[in-house]
């Protein structure tokens, strides 16, 4: 059986002791189970880029959960909007891609991977990152999707 490990974190910041942490623990437990299933599936696939696929897919799990400050749960700007960023690196090839100042993209990590794999650039920001997402049909969402308590 393939050997692997998956490590991730749910974003920066501290959950105050005055807040019930059980929703975060439950979400992390769910994401850990899903991440283990993703890692098992990719490890069994024999794909050359299995580790990269795991990193991408696990990041999407975090981006899709409003409890963590990536994607759906991202932090508001001073103007009350969202500007998201993501980066990804292939440890085997040392290729990397990063994006920032993205709005309305459900999974910024997907755009970072597109920057790495489909452009000659390492980093795209703002309109350039948005155009890349649009050109590849990356899923978007209305502003309300990203607002969470």
Give the gist of this structure.
This protein is an alpha+beta fold and 149 residues long.
Beta content comes to: 5-15%
Query: What Rg do the Cα atoms give?
Result: 16 Å
Which secondary-structure class do the elements indicate?
alpha+beta
**So how many helices?**
5
- Helix percent band: 40-55%
Q: Ends: how far apart?
A: 42 Å
* Largest sheet entry: 3 strands, mixed
Shape: flat
Low-confidence stretches: none
Report mean pLDDT, rounded to a whole number: 91
The strand line-up of the biggest sheet is 1-2-3
Please provide the ordered H/E string of secondary-structure elements. Answer: HHEEHEHH
Strand element count: 3
Layout of helices and strands, plus pairs?
Elements: H1 22-45, H2 50-63, E1 84-89, E2 96-102, H3 108-118, E3 123-125, H4 126-135, H5 143-146
Parallel strand pairs: 2-3
Antiparallel strand pairs: 1-2
Helix pairs in contact: 1-2, 2-3, 3-4
């Amino acid at each position: 059986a393939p050997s692997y490990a998956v490590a991730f974190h749910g974003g920066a910041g501290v959950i105050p002791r005055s807040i019930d942490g059980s929703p975060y623990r439950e979400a992390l437990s769910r994401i850990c189970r899903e991440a283990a299933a993703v890692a098992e599936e990719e490890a069994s696939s024999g794909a050359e880029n299995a580790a990269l696929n795991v990193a991408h897919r696990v990041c999407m799990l975090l981006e899709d959960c409003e409890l963590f400050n990536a994607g759906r749960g991202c932090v508001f700007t001073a103007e009350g909007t969202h500007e998201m960023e993501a980066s990804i690196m292939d440890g085997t090839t040392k290729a990397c891609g990063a994006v920032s100042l993205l709005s309305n993209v459900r999974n910024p990590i997907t755009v970072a991977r597109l920057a790495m794999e489909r452009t000659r650039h390492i980093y795209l920001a703002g309109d350039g990152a948005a155009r890349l997402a649009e050109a590849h049909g990356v899923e978007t969402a209305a502003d309300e999707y990203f607002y969470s308590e």
